[in-house]
Q: What sequence folds into this?
């Protein structure tokens, strides 16, 4: 593990004022990360589809000031100052300070907005923190123009990870692996890497419809859930299983085996929630409509000979995954049937995407 490469070697000329805008997406894990050790290192490797439409756009304006003892910033979300979001971001800046000492020389004004409704139950930490990480790396590049694009992307993922583990998978796309794994060349616990092998065409434009089953605050945060894996009776088997599942998923993604893909993705989703059901204390994030939707998906798959399947993240919402070739048929099914189980019939049609974009 070598984090020294992420500590800037030179202290360059300061820039008076500069600003950057970056758009980074959310992602949905196919093999899940659940359980970590300090500092934000995963207990097993994971892989996700990067999304396209669900994203955060963040602008950071930097203006030079006397070096401060800790990061000095104002935070606006959808145009309004958000004091309640500040502690999380302050904690993030504290964690990255050693890797980005230059942030202490600037007053930062952060303006952020999401493409998806706030409190939709869609985790905004992955897109939100990766967008901030990209803005910091563009400042670092402005201060040191010799940095390569490869280094910038790698360090952006490294920084994003220190904010939220899954955020490390939101810089690139369409498939990103985070966590060291013997079968994934170049993989690391420190940052996400693009899935390094040729992906079968069927997975290159895969669709993801996010069904908004419950838009309320989660009763148990991801941080708490991860921590409950420390003394979890099934933890070691789960970490081993996830790494084995990633080996299988790597083959499936290269060979285009849809039946195996469906089996593995759904099993991963249910295993993630099984870990929650068997934690001490136990908790349930699924809602009755989560289960209704799962059963409807299974019925539709059998009746229509479809390749539709579901996955879940740490919440009640359902991600419906399907090949592009079934888009029309499945979208009709979602609108006519599954939307009835969503809050206010709301869902978001998305598809795999390619990561961070300049705003
Ligand atoms: O990145 P965190 O700490 O919010 O954890 C995310 C965990 C899951 O979304 C449940 C799984 C994953 O791999 O994204």
A:
């Amino acid at each position: 593990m070598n984090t020294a490469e992420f500590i800037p070697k030179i202290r360059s000329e300061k820039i008076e004022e500069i600003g950057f805008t970056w758009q980074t997406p959310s992602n949905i894990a196919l093999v899940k990360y659940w359980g970590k050790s300090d500092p934000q290192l995963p207990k097993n490797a994971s892989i996700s589809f990067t999304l396209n439409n669900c994203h955060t756009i963040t602008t950071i304006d930097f203006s030079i000031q006397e070096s401060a003892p800790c990061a000095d910033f104002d935070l606006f979300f959808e145009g309004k100052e958000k004091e309640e979001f500040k502690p999380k971001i302050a904690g993030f800046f504290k964690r990255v300070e050693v890797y980005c000492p230059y942030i202490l020389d600037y007053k930062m004004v952060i303006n952020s907005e999401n493409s998806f409704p706030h409190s939709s139950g869609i985790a905004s930490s992955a897109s939100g923190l990766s967008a901030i990480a990209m803005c910091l790396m563009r400042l670092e590049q402005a201060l040191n123009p010799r940095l390569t694009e490869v280094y910038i992307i790698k360090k952006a993922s490294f920084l994003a990870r220190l904010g939220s583990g899954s955020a490390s998978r939101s810089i690139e796309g369409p498939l990103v692996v985070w966590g060291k794994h013997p079968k994934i060349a170049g993989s690391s616990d420190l940052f996400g890497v693009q899935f390094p092998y040729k992906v079968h065409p069927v997975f290159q434009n895969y669709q993801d419809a996010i069904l908004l089953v419950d838009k309320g605050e989660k009763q148990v945060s991801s941080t708490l859930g991860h921590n409950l894996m420390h003394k979890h009776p099934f933890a070691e088997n789960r970490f081993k299983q996830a790494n084995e599942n990633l080996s299988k998923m790597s083959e499936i993604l290269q060979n285009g085996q849809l039946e195996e893909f469906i089996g593995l993705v759904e099993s991963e989703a249910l295993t993630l929630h099984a870990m929650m059901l068997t934690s001490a204390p136990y908790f349930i994030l699924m809602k009755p409509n989560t289960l209704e939707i799962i059963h409807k998906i299974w019925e539709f798959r059998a009746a229509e000979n479809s390749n539709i399947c579901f996955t879940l993240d740490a919440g009640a919402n359902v991600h419906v995954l399907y090949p592009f070739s079934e888009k029309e048929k499945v979208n009709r099914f979602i609108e006519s049937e599954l939307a009835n189980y969503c809050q206010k019939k709301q869902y978001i049609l998305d598809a795999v995407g390619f990561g961070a974009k300049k705003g």
Notes: The chain has a mean pLDDT of 95. The pocket of PMV is lined by residues 29, 32-34, 46, 123, 125, 164-166, 222, 226, 272, 313-314 (CB under 6 Å).
